[in-house]
Amino acid sequence: MRIEGEKRYALLLAARDSDYVKKVYGGYFNVFVAAFGGGGERWDLFRVVDGEFPSMNELHNYDGFVVSGSPYDAYGDDSWILELCFLLQTLDAMQKKVLAFGGKVGKAYSGWDIGLRKVKIVKDFTSCSFLDGLDEFPPALSIIECHQDEVWEVPVGAEVIAFSDKTGVEMFAIGDNILGIQGHPEYTKDILNNLIDRLLTSDAIEKGFAEDARLKLQVAEPDRKCWERI
């Protein structure tokens, strides 16, 4: 049942909750709602990583969808990844608002990107409905990053709206309804520090790299307020 005037959003969770996030935040769902949610909204959770998807006849009930990041490859052939790709194509055809990733994705040529990164906004880009709540988009944003893949090529019809010294595609928009973000504006510093611990323990990254990433977190703060208005 939908309450008249209530905005309704769905989080399509493509990652499983870590023990740390479950203990401190009650799960990634709460992390996303804290970052992007607002009053007069209802948020629903679909754990797509476990094969839990909204039914096709439910899609029209939602004003927008958020697709989380994932430790799994976006270009993988797992059944849930293929189903998620089909769902995103369907949402695009329905002109639903989607905050997600897309395009041609692969391993970053320059390796891991972990820490706080300054993302530069393209001048005079075409605004989309996601950004209507912003009176003025800042020239740059500090966003937490934690990924080994990057966007090699944006989807057809997409416009790059942010880049960095690390990669040429940090944010892109397609028309008025799709916004893709390479980084993790929903992350807090403590969540990233825990991820660094886990990556270090599993030998996915080296100690010196981890220490450098932690140092960057100590000297600056991520920009979080602007996402509350998107």
Q: Report the strand count.
A: 11
Percentage of residues in DSSP E strands:
25-35%
Cα radius of gyration in angstroms: 17 Å
Which word captures the global form? globular
**Helix proportion:** 10-25%
State the separation between the terminal residues, measured CA to CA. Answer: 25 Å
Order of helices and strands: EHHEEHEEEEEEEEHH
For the biggest β-sheet, the strand order reads: 2-1-3-4-11-10-9-6-7
Oligomer description: single chain
Largest sheet: 9 strands, mixed
Throw out a few tags for this protein.
alpha/beta, two-stranded antiparallel sheet, globular
Structure in words:
- The structure is a single chain.
- The protein is an alpha/beta fold and 230 residues long.
- It is built from five helices and eleven strands, in the order E-H-H-E-E-H-E-E-E-E-E-E-E-E-H-H.
- The strands form two sheets. Strands 2-1-3-4-11-10-9-6-7 form a nine-stranded mixed β-sheet, with helices on both faces. Strands 5-8 form a two-stranded antiparallel ribbon.
- Strand 10 (171-174) and strand 11 (178-181) form a beta hairpin.
- The longest helix has 15 residues, at 79-93.
- The model has no long low-confidence stretch (mean pLDDT 85).
SSE layout and pairings?
Layout: E1 7-12, H1 19-25, H2 28-36, E2 41-46, E3 64-67, H3 79-93, E4 97-100, E5 104-107, E6 113-121, E7 140-147, E8 149-153, E9 158-163, E10 171-174, E11 178-181, H4 189-201, H5 207-219
Helix pairs in contact: 4-5
